[in-house]
Structure formats: C-alpha cells, structure tokens
Amino acid sequence: MDNQVLFAAIFLIAGISALQFYRGRKLNLMLMEHYIKAIKEVVKPEDELYTWLGGYIGFRAEYKINRSNVRKMEFTLTLLPRHSLLYFPIALITSRHDKLYIVIKPFSDIRREAHLIQKGYYRMRPGIENEDLLQKEIIEVAGRQYEALYEKRRDVENLKALIESLSNPRNVKHVSLTPKTNVFYVLMKPEPDTIGEDVERIVRFANERLKESPFSS
C-alpha cells in the first residue's frame, strides 16, 4: 500500500511538472515575443542581434539605432522560470520578478556620474567606481526610498523626474549615468501592458535630456 501511494505521488508530481513545463514555456515565449515587438516599435533599430540566454529564461538584444542622440541600445530580459515546477518557487525568493536591463549608448558625452538605487533592492550591491568621491544621500521617489550617489545633485533630480514619469515608478530599481563607459542604464521590472510607453520615455530622456546640461556639459 505504501508503495502504491509513493508511485501515485510520483506520477502525480510528474504530470504536474509536465503541465507546468508546457504552460510556463508558452507563457515565457509569449512574453519574450511581446517585449521584442513593443520595444522595436519604439526604437525602430536599423540593425539587430539577439543572443539566447538558454532555456526559456530570456535573451539579450543589441540594436543599432544611429538616430537622434542614441547610437546603440542594448537590453537584456530575464524571466522567472515559469516552466520549472521545482525551481520557480526558489526563483520567486531569489530573483523576485522578471527583470529588464536597458543600456543606452548616446552620441553625446556623459560627463558626470549619478545613480539612483532603490533602497534594499540589492542583496549585494554592485560596485561603483570612485564611489568614495561621490556625494550620498537617501531621497524619496514615488513613495520609495532611493540611495542617491552623485557629483552634482541636479543630475539626480533629473533622474528622479524620469523615474516619476514612468507608468509604475516603483518598478525602477536602479538608474544611472556612467561617464567612463558613456552609458545610460536602467534596471526595472517590466510590465507587458506598459513596456512600450516606458521605453519610449526612457529613449526620449536619452534623446532630449542627455544632449542638454547638466549631463553633457
């Protein structure tokens, strides 16, 4: 009787795992297709390259834009492993949500460093070069506390305005301007219904604000 119960439990788990795999795989593939379509409609790349991250957890896209102030845009989408019955609950604890990493390389020069990092988001915060030389304070953005690191505070005020302009500001976990690599960076939790308008505002910021002072002068 015990063996029968054990075998029945194994078959049940196997069946649920198979169902979760096919449903989760389909959902992640649909999300990837949706995000690619929505972002391409906004940025209209003249050339594109995709790198599969393996399994059904996402991809990296490299777009040549060469328009207005955006030379190149890269984004990496990492999705929760919805296809894995066993790993999905663990990922909800470790990764917490889908992630979209946006890297914009403008034509104009970024001359000063600035970061806004949602307080408590990183378990191990990434290293920031010359952090000791930056001013630091905690500011509130859309009801959440962010750690601000900057050379001039007006840079942070502009990044704060960008976050507040997005559909759900709390989805933005880290936004930065890095002179050494001349990169404008955004880490956010993407939402299918609003990804197009959010990326449009981010690109507009690069096209309009990064060409102006305080960032480029």
Description of the structure:
The protein is an alpha+beta fold. Helix content is 36%, strand content 30%. The protein has four helices and nine strands; from the N terminus they run H-E-E-E-H-E-E-E-E-H-E-E-H. It has helices spanning 2-43, 87-94, 153-165, 195-209; strands at 47-52, 58-67, 70-78, 99-106, 114-118, 135-141, 144-150, 172-178, 183-188. A nine-stranded antiparallel sheet has the order 1-2-3-4-9-8-5-7-6. Helix 1 (2-43) packs across helix 4. The longest helix is centred in the first third of the chain and has 42 residues, at 2-43. The chain is globular and about 70 Å long. The model has no long low-confidence stretch (mean pLDDT 85).
Total helix count? 4
Which assembly state applies to the chains in this document?
single chain
Output the radius of gyration.
Answer: 20 Å
Residue share in β-strands: 25-35%
Shape: globular
Helix content: 25-40%
Question: Helices and strands: which structural class?
Answer: alpha+beta
- State the distance separating the first and last CA atoms: 78 Å
Biggest sheet, spatial arrangement of strands: 1-2-3-4-9-8-5-7-6
Topology pattern, helix = H, strand = E: HEEEHEEEEHEEH
Average pLDDT works out at 85
Please provide the count of β strands: 9
Poorly predicted parts: none
Main pleated-sheet profile = 9 strands, antiparallel
